[in-house]
Fold each of these.
Amino acid sequence: MKGRLDGFGRLMRYLMASLAVASTCPPAVLGQGEVHEIHEIQGRGLSSPRAGMTVTTNDNVVTAVGAGGFFIQTPSARSDNDVDTSDGVFVLHGGAPPVSVGDQVDVVGEVEEFFGFTRIDATVAGGSVAIDASNQALPAAVEFNAARPSPNPARPSCAREYECYEGMRIRIATGTVSGGSQHFRSDPVAEMYITSTSSRGFREPGIEYPGRPGLPVWDGNPEVFELDPDKIRLENESWVPGTTFTATGVLGYEFGGYEIWPTELTVRSAAEALPRAVRAKAPGEITVASQNLLNLRENAGSAKLGKLSRLIREVLGSPDIVAVQEVQGRTALQDLAARIRSDDPSVRYTAHVEAPGRSQAVGFLVRSGVAVDRVTEHGRSETFVDPRDGTVDRLHDRPPLVLEATAGGLAFSVVAVHNRSLIDVDDAARGEWVRTKRLEQAQSVARLVESLQDGNAIVVGDFNAFQFTDGYVDVVGQIRGRVAPAENLMFGPDLVTRDLCNLIDRAPAAEKYSFVFDGNAQALDHALVNQSLERHVVGVEYARGNADAARNHEDDATNVLFAADHDGLVVYLTPAAKPPVNPSPCEAAAPDPDPGPDPDPDPDPEPEPEPDPDPEPPPDLAECGDDDVLCVGHFDVQVDWRTHDGRTGRGVAHKLTAESGDFWFFEPANIEMVVKVLDGCANNGHFWFFAAGLTDIEVTTTVRDRRNGVRNTWVNPLGRLFEPISDTRAFATCTPESSAVGLRRPTPEGATAEAAELSHPVWLADAVQAVAAVGTCVAGETSLCLQDARFEVRANWQAGEGSGVGTAVPRTSDTGMFWFFSPGNVELVVKVLDGCRLGGYRWVLMGGLTDVGVEITVTDSESDAVKTYRNPEGSPFATRFDLMAFPCSADG
């Protein structure tokens, strides 16, 4: 059966390839065989109905040529137009095939299923390839996109997803790398995992499809498949996940997976290079990190120790405390501490491992300057009952380790964990044992956490669990004190009196991962803090360079990439506590527990009170309508900022449309952020949140649904260009009325009378129009005039086959915006600033709330100099700071 390759199959890769070329069986002698079209040879199933038969197929076009064979496809005019059958097939031909792309050929050969890949073997006796014509038009390529292959396994785009396209020409207009290059002995830089959309694949809640009745189901991301760049080309590629590309090629199959074998391959937008270090800690901050060391053994060798030393120093930023997993004994961790000190004498760590012998364990690296009170192992003697036979088994293979320490005057406890993996969680023989062990371990850690609630506590490590339920057991939920019984096959009582915060909930959606499995990004490494310590949390970041790196870097001592297979995380703390709030952020949006049926129901219950349509905001949120809170629909948006020199403040809000608004931080003319909340309920059952910023300071954005108090927070770290927020699953708070058409949209304050007549108001308030009356630029419907009307700004957009010109919305003398599809839906913000006194240039800054293709031109009306900026289609619009856009010498 064709499907995803299991681990054993991958290990057999080299052997299988060797067997394929080493066969010495005597060839069969063939006649001409029956004449068939390719779709008849391929059939509708996973294997050919004519396997083992001699066939002739005539007048097909060569679409791709590689070493050892070529692909042919039925001309479009002769296709059976049956979506369930493929029109393409691979022809095996020894040596360099005597054909070229565009040749029309007749082929005679034996049909075979080569480890699941349908092909015609023309090398057997009697096999032949004859060229009838050349320079023929190639059959149209099948477009792979957001709908094909289907992301819903219950509704595939054809009867046998992927199989129905095997051997055919495929085009991907915008694809995204979802997992780095794999590594095999026979192919050190092998296939990348990809999607044919502008987004990579992420793990989602639930049991993998088809799941179990009554429990959450994860679709398995069937849209994730593979790209083998050099299968039929000479050039190989190895790209960082998140890179977008355009590809045309053929769909092949090998070693259990479907792959695009490209004939054309172009990068659209390259992801940021690896490694990507976390930000440097600010003066006075305390850093607590977690890092899986990928089986650090005694006598690990210089290359392994050197890479881990660089990882901890250069990528994690030499944290004050590092909780480590997969270290085999104290000596191994002491060797790493010694190597770090040798590489940088200013960084001195003490190793703490309490597990006996050389068994895999958790531990701590504690930097000098941190006062260690004690390090204690917990749970080594704990057991659980095997549900299959009633025997008693050891609970913790890697018992939790608790460090009690003081740093910067702040006393706290750090719990390091490494829970049982998900391996065999759904196995018929071992699954129940695995699930029980995972649940009992989670409950054990929860009891430990509860015993530390009187002080500051943080739990970090490799939880081997997601931030949500896997459908079997919600390990993280049980530990933090927040679990929904109805969403789990197994669950235990809530043992935590005051819920913990999972800090990765505050990370941008695109950053919520620490591990990549089969091309699916997932978070296995977490940081949970109790409510006492939450008041000291400044932020959290994952360090990038392991999970997204190509596996062939593991043994390369010249770089730090793939020092381990998990990305580590760093939590930033400050000794100064924030004021307490009620309810705590850790309690917000907690799922209601399922208490079961009422044993003594009231026969005459009181009527339920009507919900408050506009409940009081939490004390840490200002009132809707205040100048520092933006009200869009039934959502509040609040923005808090912190500068490099430690100043803090709250953004001043200005409403633009019913769905959008902006904020300024330092002066009204200098817009720093644009945000919008869109109703996506009819599309995916969620409200969507987008934000673009023109800043590199720390920004904390909090959005609250006033109807129910549910809120989300996004943090842009200090020193990083604002990363656009495009969260299309921000709020699962839709109601039947959420997507009603014809909702009345209020007209923004200050709009002209003409704008007030529009259902989606466009406004050019008199005060705003007045700023464009000084320079020689003339503002129009599609152009902004900024910096005293000197600089003209225009924006063109493209989405698929559609394109258009952005409509300009002036905001201040320096800043303006554009909408593309609807006047109420702002897509782009641009500002031009005078930086002449700072560096001799005028600056152009821009941010977007879109992933369509955009071309922005900025023209200096005095010098006629033009700058052009482009955002490729399918990529979230990245913040741009061009601080050398226009030299001030152009002023004359």
Amino acid sequence: MKLKIYVVGHSHIDAVRLWDRRETIDVCCYRTFKNTVDLIKKYPNVIFAQSSAQFYEWMEKYYPEVFEEIKKLVSEGKWEIIGGMWVESDCNIPSGESLVRQILYGKKYFKEKFNFDVKVAWLPDTFGFASTLPQIFKKSGIEYFVTSKLNWQTTLPFPYFLFRWKSIDGSEIVGYETPGGYNNTDPEHLIRQAKFIFMRHGIRTSIFPYGKGDHGGGFTEEMIEKLFEYQSDEFEKIDFAKVHDYFEEEIEPLKNKLPEFKDELYLKTHRGTYTSFAKIKLNNRKAEIALDTAERFSTVANSLGMDLKFEDFEEIWKILLFNQFHDSIAGTSIEKVYKDSEKDFNKIFDFTDSIIQRSLDYILKNVDTTGTGKSLFVFNPLSWQRNDIVKIELEKIGFSNFAIKDSEGNFLDYQIIKENGKKYVEFLVENAPSVGYKEYKIVEWVNQESKKTLNDLWNSKVIENEFFRVEVADTGVIKNIYDKKNKREVLGEKGGNIVQIYEDKTLIEGPWNIWLGKLDELRKPVSILKEENRLSSSITVKYRYKDQNEKDSTFILKISLYKSIPLIFFKADIDWHEKHKMIKVGFHLNGHSDFTAYEVPYGHIVRRNPDSKGASPAERAKWEVSGQKWLDYTFSDGNYGVSLLNDSKYGFDVHENFVRMSLLRTPSFPLSYNISLEKLENLTESIMDLGKHTINYALYPHAGNWREAKTFKKAYEFNYPLIPVLAETHEGHLPKEISFLKLSGSDGVLLMSWKKSEDKKGEILRLLEIEGKEQTLEIEISDNIKEAYEVNLMEEILRSEDIAIDGQKLRTNIKPYEIKTIKIVREKIENV
């Protein structure tokens, strides 16, 4: 039986990389699509497939005549829609909700414009894939997944070309790794790849993309003629086919015979992309949180009567999704791309700031704010009650001498701090309601006696609260952290908060790849300053560093403890001027484990540490890995562990008991695609990530493992600040303290999104079970519930019989590690 080879015309187009988006629109997309339309007219047996809804929207906006031609070809079956995402996103750095929105808005666009439901994820060039993706894809109606990138392994090739990819919850899709790349232009190469698939899996049918890519191109007339003319005794035929048809007709019947793979698809190269170009990664994290917060409180405000154009959220989300394209968020594009990106994020933050303020103000218009003093409301966007510090600008208080009182009239301690030239008031909020608020009163009062002291004596390098005692050595490194509650030392003998600076002279593809050389450590501080306030104490260590640059780089590392908060806070203010370096911060822990847990999009992964005795060759290759808001190193006896939380970082490594987070890399920016020889000869090297950076992170030492310690909640609290809002005095029907949504029945279930449904007829609640337990969950909102349905991630109704409604409450089951989405309709008439 001979080989049967299918091809589909395709052009992999980078939305940005060595060119900016305008060039992508006018050159990569327009010229490729116009040429392809003309070729299909000449060769009616040809089929072309293209991903990325963003590209189609650009054609619709800027080149409508080409867009109409594409629509016609889609209806005739000669142009296939694939991918189902807004762009070909990175799949390590964006949050789980961002990946859901990539598919939601991508598939929505394709359905509205082409009446086509995409079932094939198409990510040929993305730099690795989180282990949770099968569930996200499956619950979005995606059954098949195609990539070419796993060929790029520097060691240990990926073992399969066709496989069943399963996530931790049991969701499963079919994965397809093309044996070659995505820029196939020669039939001879296709024969070779088809043989690989047959030898590995015994499958005689295969499909391959055919055409030039990256900067666009697609197929040419010569390539089409060459394909049709090519003959060989080794194959039955080479013919054009649709990707969907290949999977549904050729692979679906064989699916159960394919090997199972239940892990992340880790790319054993391009590890620098977790860290390169820090600003877009910081902006991405802040934008994801701001959009989530804005959706939650605007949904609440809308239920109270606020009119809002919810379609605007989709347009702002699309700006973020575009910037999550794999060569953008990874830090692997030219400098111009990031200047454009900064403008994009300014639009996002202008929108979210406005929506959050408007929503909270509207909510407070309905609240009874009567009583003595000025009302200060503190909002908690998270779905559990929490104790945390809130911060408000002193100028907004309006009194020079004041006191803060809680609802029972108790006076609260507060402190005044200075940051970036502004003064702020900080105080502890206890039991901040789940997705709700509570009121405090500010009254004129004789100012509290100042308790602030500064001490730069070298023998005063200890701070403590009721949880920890932290001592800093003369080197500026933390000498020890004593856990008072658990009566144990947290750090190993070598200490923690150690800043390491590596030479990182990558020979090729600097932003992509890490090549570590000479190591320096910061051990000679310029100063060590201790500060004590009413609520906190801190030690600030300042270092200077110089290697090859004439200008000193500076590190100001602040270590803080707050009363009633079981975290050790770190703030690194870095002014960096050295090129071709990589900066890490690390902690030697006082215990051993072979495993470390990390947050990944909509879930977690437990990885075996690469130098543990039982590590396989593939595990040893994971010497730099991706994570999101938290990692946890629980000691092997399971009785104690330490979590590392962060506000903007994605690259980590663990060797023995040394846990490190990657802070900065300073490779050269890539060169522009069209740079002339003359410009190249006179080029001045442009280095990314020089200048000022502020990085926040925290340690969370804890009894038990990360599940028992609720590390995930601490990480979200670290990233989602409490929001203070002052209100005028007036009567209202809402109380002075309320929770608009409560979850009960499990501490291991998080509300990940609360938004208006896409049809504007209800609200969407997205939940995540993170501890691996089947739970019966109760959700209570502030109005009676009329209807409730389980829906998929595309908000299509699956069932309602598994959800019990009782007034303002609903009950449902959630499975281990499940992403569960519920659509609710309130009894009251909603403003839409």
Amino acid sequence: MWEFYRSVHAGVGPAIIGISAWCAAGTVGVIFSDPGAGRLLAFAPWWVGVIAMVFAACVPTWRVRPITAVPALLSTVPWWPIPLPAVALVWTGALAWVPIGASLLAAEGSRALGWLGRAIGAQAPDRATRVAALGSLVIALGAAWAADPRVPGGDEPHYLVITQSLLQDGDLFIENNHAARDYASYFGGSIAPDYLVRGKDGRIPSIHAPGVSALVLPAFAAFGFRGAQATLILLFAVTGALMWRSAWRLTGDTSAAWFAWAAVAGSTTMAVMSFMVFPDAPGACAVAAAVWLLVALPDASARAVVSVSAALAGLPWLHTRFSVLAGALGVALLVVMLRDQARPMADRLRRGALFSAIPAVSAVAWLGMFYILYGSFDPSVAYGPSPEIRSWIWAAVTGLFIDQQFGLMTFAPVLLAAGLGVMLSAPRRLRLLSALSIGIVLAYAMAVASYWMWWAGVPGLPSRFMTAALPLLALPLAVAWSRSGAANRRVLLAGLLVSLAITALVLSVDRGAMAWNDRRAAQAAWLEWLNPLVNLPGAWPSFFWDTEVAFLRHAATSLAVLAGLWLALRMVAHSRTIVATGILLGFMLLIQVGWWVTGHAPLDAARAQLTIHAAAGAGESIWRVGGGVRRWDAVAEPLRLDRYQPPISDRQSAAVVALVNVPGGLYRLDVTSGSLGGSLNVRIERPPAPLLYQFNMPASSSQAFQMSLPAGASALVVEGDGPEFARQLRASLLPASAAQAPGVFAPQFAAYGDSGVFFLDGNVFPKGEGFWVRGGRTTRVVLGRGQAAANRGHVLQVRNGGAPNTVTIQISGWQEVLTMAAGEARAVTLPAADALGSWPITITSSSGFRPSDTAGQDARFLGVWIVLTR
């Protein structure tokens, strides 16, 4: 009997994980945006749960202590056949796997950390410093690989153009370099000189400071863009080593140093900026050196003092805003040197003079640069009459830390623990250095938040402009860990793991796409991605939604919830399982409170509804929960995709419906108007994308418009004539047929007379009356002419480019291969269209040419030109 009990006991934990994983792998949706109206469930295959159970049986703690698997049960809550509030649906989509991951960390986290610490020799300070440098190098290389398709981007090419101007002309005037397209070797587009004010002689100096351009110059001259990247990646490794060493010297605790290093180096902001050709990563290295000296004094050598002074002297050359960091750290270090009671006054003054010499000369030269370029010693002259936002500076500063798109601590919540370094009982020196570090960070944040151009780009990276100040937080973070007890450390470790998970998520999905956010959208891409059903962005503070008072109220409420959660966990954190469960429940509370504060709708159900629609189109069985459990009848209870809820942003918008990843098929657009009439414009993507449909909407009426999508749309947008007209419309999109070709979405559409072409990839260049197929590539397109063209043929005009080519055109089982000379044209008759009046076509161009080889600047590799005929 006892053996039977032990067998059952050993199977409880794996069974919990298996059931939870099976639920997490399924899809939860709603018929329309009201959880009380019923949920739709698409079950995962049964073997998903079996495989998860087998895996879970390999985890010793889950067999011995099934209680550690309990947090995973939250993944099953959305599947319970009972009425549920909207917040209970948080654990769907990607978030459904979070409780399972939390259970795994609760079960095996300490074992894994212990093994890793022994493997890398984490307790030996000298070895640990080298490992921290290596770990930083790995972070930078991983981030660089993840985001490689997106760089160089933003201002990176502009910094490299300055490098080329220094190399080729020996000056900072860039107009000739842009005219000659010197950047063509590393940037495929066209960029204009980036400036706001011309120089005093009428020439154009870049608005960007030349420091990072000069820093990467040797490696760029030898290896181009990759050499510039390598320079910054190596500097990030040095930054990581300095942060670890500083934290260890201050606390004498290697575990505290590792916590501080991981919290800062592993933050999304630092990881993303570690490899990009911006001044922020070199600035962070200089600040890390100053932080190390701040801790090492009074024992630091004269060579170290001079080296750090040179690093601080270089900060303003990297960016004007870094002068705040250079000045604050310089004064702090000078005060520490002059107050060193262990040295005679003459020695103190000598060290102070030694420390000040290089920065003084550099400051004169730096101001002189502005006079030479602009005729003024004022560093702000390069920015022209850029508007300041000091009238609401506190909201802007708060946004730098809390905003959902660009807030430092939104992406790295563990950094909030820096405040504990000041509050916890600690020796006076530790508290003073912690307070000084946080004070400098806040002063710098105020300077950054004073100008729009320093705040957030379009698109921008998370808290990019705070990067250089982050090494300062290593000190209070290390103090917070070293002065905490076991319960508090469990909470801090959980916060660290959440932060690292966010960094991994942002960099791993779509090659880092979610690191770039557009402030005009006013909602974070990563929060949207996490859950396709609940409105996570609507629950998190945004600096760009409303007035500064409303934003500050929301931010204060969120911080109060987090503080209350931390205090509660400190009191009950007797085990990692309790901490994991508490954080998961606390996250639900934070989201619910956010909805209460903002008044936003808790569900943003359209993406989940479209996933259900696609699953049904693929033949999966869909079940309805609500008023019992039964198989869903899509005809009797059609999905209603509502997108008329007020947008998060208070910006004026003409959008009536805006959906992503809409499967192909037939749809009905139901619209009710108010006192105004006008036109409804349907597009794939927003203007200036061509019209897919245009409907006339009379005033004070209800209309149903039919739409056919021969291919799925990556974004389907219905807009009114203007914001005022759009505001008084109510619209819903209803599927009128099964989904076609689930998972295939067109990012572009072009209209050619009564025909339209849906482009399914980036291997085409639409222009005028046709489109080019990229040379040496295969592209997929869907040609649509409407249901009136069903079962009829069509003719394509195919004209080859400037090189001999073999062109293959395929439709299902039909194929035609054309061997074509340069400039040759052929007419190709397509077989009959499908029931939607469309042709899914695959076109391969085996060769190509570059127009720039003969004339002009068009460096595209073009294959064959396709023109549609009637």
